[in-house]
Amino acid sequence: MLLLVAERIIAAEPHLSEADRNLGDGDHGLGMQRGLTAAREKLMAFPDDGSVTIDKLFSTVGMAMMSSMGGASGAIFGTLFRDGGKALVGRETFGAAELAIFLRAACDGVMSRGKAQPGDKTMVDALHPAAAAAEAASGGLLTEAMAAVATAADAGKEASKAMVAVFGRARSLGEGAIGFPDAGALSVTVILEAMRDFVAAR
Ligand code: ADP
Ligand code: MG
Fold first, then answer.
1. What is the pLDDT of residues 23-81, one digit of tens each?
2. Residues within 5 Å of ion ligand 2, judged at the Cβ atom
3. 39-77 in b/e burial notation, b at 16+ Cβ within 10 A?
4. What pLDDT does residue 130 have?
5. pLDDT above 70 covers what percent of the chain?
6. Mean per-residue pLDDT for 118-135?
7. For residue 180, is pLDDT > 90?
8. Pairwise CA distance, residues 34 & 44, whole Å
9. Helix (H) or strand (E) run with residue 181 in it
10. Rounded to whole angstroms, how far apart are CA atoms 3 and 41?
């Protein structure tokens, strides 16, 4: 699942870069590509025999992103996977309940690290509704929970178009930021859609 996430983010580089060009400095796609390329290398180095725990897989992605991307978004996206992963210690399967635990811890970690609130036009605008959707669907099937989560993230990303930015370079644009989605919210949507597509195909 995480290898598909890496593949999709790496392939989405032009879209992520364009989104960041509209509101920021245009480096988001390349940063994410670098982070997920490093993460993929770490994942590929693990033995493929089920001996690596779920929390370790997610945390490894987060740590690889932190150390390879640099900057604010490396810390923030790294925190998403690392804190989400840490919350899964002791879990042996990844079902709808684990998805909810993962996304709640990821969202809490990102919000405490970056200080962004929903409505500030950041990746939190996709992650926060995704975590709520996961909790609402945590008692059912992972395929259904994943579908609800990806839909919620995409709706949050769309809603970010109408927001004025509070963080980063887009802040100086003021109302000029209206109409463009946040680049990080687009990344969160790509990540969760990859997870959805992976579980749907199994
Ligand atoms: P940089 O802003 O250093 O150029 P990127 O372009 O890679 O980094 O990432 C920008 C994205 O990072 C934004 O679109 C936003 O979603 C996210 N981001 C930036 N600051 C914060 C923050 N404080 N909290 C949450 N997300 C943030
Ligand atoms: Mg940028």
1. 999 999 999 999 999 999 999 999 989 899 999 999 999 999 999 998 788 999 999 99
2. 20, 24-25, 27-28
3. bbebbeeeeeeeeeebbebbbbbbbbbbebbeeebbbbb
4. 99
5. 100
6. 98
7. yes
8. 16
9. none
10. 10
Which protein residues touch ligand 1 with a CB less than 6 Å away?
A: 20, 24-25, 27-28, 31, 71-73, 76, 110, 114-116, 122-124, 167-168, 182-185
Instruction: Write down the pTM of the prediction.
Output: 0.98
How high is the pLDDT of residue 167?
A: 84
Residue with the smallest CA separation from ligand 1 atom 24 is 114
Structure tokens at 197: 């597509």
d(CA 193, CA 129): 14
Name the residue type at position 177. Answer: A
**Residue entry with tokens 């500030």:** 120
Q: How far apart are CA 148 and CA 16, in angstroms?
A: 23
Class of domain 2-201 as given by CATH: mainly alpha
